[in-house]
Fold this protein.
Amino acid sequence: MIRLPCSGRLFGASLLAGLFFFAPRPAIAEFDPFHVPKDRFREKVRRVVIRPFRFPVTIPDSRLLSRHAMRHVTNELERLGFEVVDPSEFEDRWRRYSETLGGVFDPTTGVADAEKYRLAFEYTLRDLVNSQEVDAVVRLSHFLRVADVGSDGVYLWAAGSSLVWEGRWIPDRIGIGRVWPQRVHAAWLGIEIQDASGQVLFDVGYPLGWTRIYMLRGFEDFPPEELYTEETIDEAFNRCLAELAE
């Protein structure tokens, strides 16, 4: 199964904007998403809170899909035996501490002040640990990267979307040649879990589906309304959460 770690540097204007772009490490055949032994993880993490998550507004029905994603992950975590604190508990505290610090993001550029961001997160997490007995924070992410599609054309998409160029599946033989993309962009969904000290304990991503194919004659986009559906989002997050099953 193809998975990558989802951690990386924030590229965006707001925590609540929900659009995160990451530069994950290269794919590893047998990637272990746990940064600590799995048995120790289960002993250490029992009660979690999910950080607010938003798909970018360019995605159709982004608000509805964002709420669905958080609700689905909450249900799955509970099914796996975790206690999940309502995401509003994180959001309310984050807003309060951000305002106390005079705002974390520059109102003109939208760029976060690194020190204020760190402090706001630290204060929020400390408050949640003391008031809600939270062991860890779960962060959902959406990011884009170039897909390393094998020469056999096999790639595991949550959306189950085959590569298509001008109505033809890729790879496909046309005359004596073979149609093959120069570059394939893909959307991924990821889950990262940090403990109360900020240490990353679990970090994994799974491909939702291809978003754009570049060919010699141009490019072709996959319709976002077909790529971003409740079913495909559930499948991608389920693949990530499967690693947490005992």
In short: The radius of gyration is 19 Å. The longest strand covers residues 200-215.
